[in-house]
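Table S2 (text version). Query chain:
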Amino acid sequence: MMKKIPVFFRPYHTTRYAYQKLRVCKHCQTFTVLSEEECPSCGKSSIIPVERQAAKEVKRADCARLFISALFALAGVLLSDGPLQMALCGAAGLLLISLLWFMQQRMRPFEVNRALDKLLKRERERIGQDVYRDWETAFANWDTDKQLTYELLRELGTLLHNDTIRLQQVALLHFFALRKDMDLVLEPLLINQYDPLLADYIGEISKIKRDLIKDKTFQYVINHEVEILGLDNGQDILTGAAGAAVRMKRYVQSYPGLVRRYAHRLPKDRFLRLYRMIQQYPNDNWDRLATEVNRIYHEKYEWDPDFQITAVRSSTI
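Corresponding structure-token output:
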């Protein structure tokens, strides 16, 4: 049996938009998703978020407009006839510059967003090449530092949405001793086709962080139930998924077949929760699940004190 590696992942900061993970070097204009401080191309510590780069471009353009406006105002003053006309032209120029500056400040957020959109579209090909270089950098550490490789791939996964990156992360997680306090994800790693390592990872998650198992995961295990059953621990994986469904009534009613097929293998605490749920809502549509739960109850738990308390409570409702 492979010995699991104990690891402590560096904090992973989620962003509202994927592009917020992208940074660019002020010196050589190289893009990167990795959280390193030095540019992977020129080695200089001059990496900034792309949003800041867009803001710099907008500020530079705004300054140019203000400078041109100031030149026009100065030309008006110099070409004026007499002190009064010079004063009027100066005042008008100053007013124009002030209004322009005020409008620039008001429109700055919108201009930055527009500049950012143009930047991403203009540099799309280069961004793709640089992000692929990031992937090569991450993969180069596979044999020497699997934790670092996983952390780098996790950063890349926010921008590169492909099954290769997802499966590489799943494969690396297979080497680690997973714990409940870890910052783990599941649904972002799901793929369409069946993969045994992904199925095994779902089984591990069902033991330590079952709240990560949601609709997409339930659909995945149902779609690939036959293949998962072919694994040595396949029934345990599917039972873990069924146990995760029991935590919410909506999941039980959405996937009653999955829960019914593995209800007899559920741990006592999971089955007790399921039994209480059905007892509490006897008039809801449970498909054939209620019949199966009742059968298991009479077969295994009819004289169990915990279930007797539940039966007394339900009879008084």
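Notes on Table S2: Residues 311-317 have pLDDT under 50 and may be disordered. Residues 83-122 form the longest helix (40 residues).
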